[in-house]
Amino acid sequence: MDPTHLFELVIGMFVAIIALHYAADRFGLPPSVALLAGGALLAFLPGLPTITVDPGLVLVIFLPPLLMDGAWSIALHPLRRHVIGIASLAIGAVFFTCAVVAAVTHLLFPSLPWAACAALGAIVSPPDAVSARAILERVRLPRRLQILLEGESLLNDASGLVLFRFAVAAAVTGGFSVVDAAGSFLLLAAGGAFVGIVVGTVWVLFVRRLGDEYLIIAGTTLLCWASYLLGELIHVSGVIATVTAGLIMGWYQHTVLSASTRMRGTSFWTVIVFLMEAAVFILIGLSLRGVVERGGGFGVVAATMGLPILAILVALTLARFAWLFGSDLVIKFCNLLGFDRYTPLGSRGVTVISWAGVRGVVTLALALSVPEGFPGRDLILVTSFAVIVGTVLVQGTTLGRVISWARLIEPEAERARLSMSQAEAAMAQAQFATVQNLAYDKEGNLIHPQLLERYQRRAVAIVDYAARTDHYSPILHAHFDVVLEAVATGRRELIRLHRAGEIDDETLHELERDLDLEELSAISAKS
To answer: Cα(103)–Cα(97) distance, rounded to whole angstroms?
Structure first.
């Protein structure tokens, strides 16, 4: 394809992303569903060339920043507290699902070698980080379930990638050792964690020395690819390396980044992640044409593979349910024996987590990377795509209803000890104490009376608000409605002065930034 046409195609894809996202919002659909369906429709437009996706390039471009974004924003304390549950999902559930899918596939296609069946199981077993994020952003879950799903989506790709590599190697060499596989998995994970620690530590030590905000933002952005590529270069898990680096950087960002850098960086990063997540689903849809053509067309695929693929999809879904319900029963049994460190999720919580296992970009990339001539390659490609479409369209569109049906309640042990208003009160009191110490000179003379009065009044007001939130909330909303109206009026006057030539561009931007911060503060206080 001509480079100019390729660039036009990319621009067209981003325009389609905006249009499809807008349509999804208007019709109340999950954006991932609209993007996937839109990409599939675009793939069959007359005159549009067949899109061939390089699987290795897809993983390198999209996976590191999306993993880094998840690790950057995840809460570290709950992650440590639920590490056993996350490991059960990210490792145990992936391995168990892979085994079930391999067994069902071999039962349906006895002539297919076990290694090829295992390769298919490894491809479709890990739920996708991108798909999980796209769904979780639009539903509300108890904190424990949210952490379990976020933690699983960060780590399970490593399990699936390791299983896939060993399955392909077994098909080529004809041999497989469980001991070797387990040892290699531990080595890859430990090596990836070490690389991530090194990258994250280097960032913490040197980010302040860059000085310039744009250099810091650019350098921080590039580190997601640096950690992934470095891990893959020395043959350890690039996924674990990226996640580990992201956890360290996310933990220290509050102390090493300035407020201005953090605001600008967050805005930039949010747009990048939005476009990448959306582009992944568009690319999955666009790849449908090539997958169908390899299978011989829709008619041939439906006639020869339809029922077996449906059986594999059902087995895949039931395997996740079986693992999670089995794990919950083990926890309940341990509680009966007196080991009550972990609390069962309950049947409704398990159902929600089981139904949230949506597949996406990793499944597509692994399927497309199956070598030419590999046994059952066409079946693997078509089944993998069907699993992606089936889980996104069915589970992705109904997860919100399942959560509503479950009526999950946040356990008391998972709730934060302080509410937001109580945390604000603690901050205000600490700030008042500091101002009180600095408001007097060495001779004890009050030199900042207005500042002291302001912080004292603020501290008293916030403490009172925290004690009577229900009483003050309507009053506060009305107060900040007036503030927002005043900001809007100030903005109109500022623009009028600029249009009349009475102030220059620099004054416009400086005062506009102050109004923006005041507006954001008012909106945050109302929410």
So the answer is: 10
